[in-house]
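Please fill in the sequence for the structure shown.

STRUCTURE ENCODING:
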């Protein structure tokens, strides 16, 4: 009773303070819910279907795997770090109640590794219903892939370009099937540097990242053009700003003042589960079956940036990418 009286006294003495705290709390909660975005509402079953997810051992890839496994899919986690992948597979099986989760080795920075994975899938899988090109690297230093390509363009685009093309026959055989490419709104700031695709003249981590994310959007568009009538559809998407380890190369390089400003906003950004929703939506939503080549955000279509709608650039990028992977 004394405690209740003390609380009443505090409320009567500081009504404005209480009001400010209450309004701020409600406002932050509202912003948090808004930032979380929409949720995929589809109840589609994936019984008898096979899904391959690159980078499915962490972040939105793992959360996507959990959801699709719960729907009954056989899920292949294609990952570089096999220890982490095996631990993730065990977690996915436990959370989903589905033991049809397998791990395969994939290093997207090695086109030989990409080809080996594709051969393994073609030799051992009877079908492939959904290919989710999820793995990526963001704003890393000026590194090179095993084949000598700029790392972000090599991993985020070229590796997935080769993997997808190697698996197209199986995807067509399994149609209707889908290809889902995880891009970003960062593509809006990007351009394809056709005369310096590896950015050897002037490298900048963010410049490289935005180029690779634009490449994802253009690749999706050209896939749609090339696969008309096959029953294979393609989708690119922005998952949102998410709390994952994707930004591990950015944080150490960020000035202290930016870290101080950014830290409070960590509360507002999406969790991996929230960030996975648009990927899941593109993989299972029944109403998208006759759509292809479009860009999505928050479980809804979103118009890509003008440079992401350029069919001529999409075709040019496809031809350049094919030439680059064929030389290795």
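FILLED IN BY: designer on duty
SEQUENCE:
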């Amino acid at each position: 009773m004394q405690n209740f009286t003390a609380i009443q006294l505090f409320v009567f003495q500081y009504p404005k303070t209480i009001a400010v705290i209450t309004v701020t709390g409600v406002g932050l909660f509202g912003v948090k819910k808004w930032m979380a975005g929409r949720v995929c509402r589809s109840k589609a079953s994936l019984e008898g279907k096979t899904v391959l997810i690159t980078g499915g051992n962490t972040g939105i890839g793992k959360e996507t795997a959990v959801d699709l496994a719960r729907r009954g899919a056989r899920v292949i986690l294609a990952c570089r770090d096999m220890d982490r992948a095996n631990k993730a597979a065990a977690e996915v099986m436990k959370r989903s109640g589905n033991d049809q989760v397998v791990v395969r080795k994939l290093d997207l920075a090695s086109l030989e590794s990409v080809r080996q994975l594709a051969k393994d899938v073609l030799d051992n899988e009877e079908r492939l219903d959904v290919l989710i090109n999820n793995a990526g690297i963001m704003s890393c230093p000026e590194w090179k892939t095993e084949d000598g390509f700029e790392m972000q363009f090599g991993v985020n685009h070229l590796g997935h370009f080769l993997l997808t093309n190697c698996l197209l026959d199986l995807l067509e055989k399994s149609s209707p099937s889908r290809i889902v490419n995880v891009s970003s709104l960062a593509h809006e700031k990007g351009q394809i540097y056709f005369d310096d695709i590896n950015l050897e003249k002037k490298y900048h981590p963010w410049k490289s990242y935005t180029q690779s994310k634009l490449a994802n959007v253009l690749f999706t568009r050209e896939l749609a053009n090339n696969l008309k009538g096959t029953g294979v559809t393609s989708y690119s998407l922005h998952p949102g700003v998410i709390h994952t380890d994707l930004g591990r190369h950015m944080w150490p390089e960020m000035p202290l003042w930016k870290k101080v400003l950014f830290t409070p906003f960590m509360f507002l950004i999406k969790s991996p589960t929230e960030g996975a929703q648009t990927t899941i939506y593109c993989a299972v939503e029944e109403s998208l079956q006759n759509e292809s080549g479009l860009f999505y955000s928050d479980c809804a279509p979103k118009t890509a940036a003008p440079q992401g709608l350029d069919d001529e650039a999409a075709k040019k990028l496809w031809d350049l990418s094919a030439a680059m992977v064929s030389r290795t």
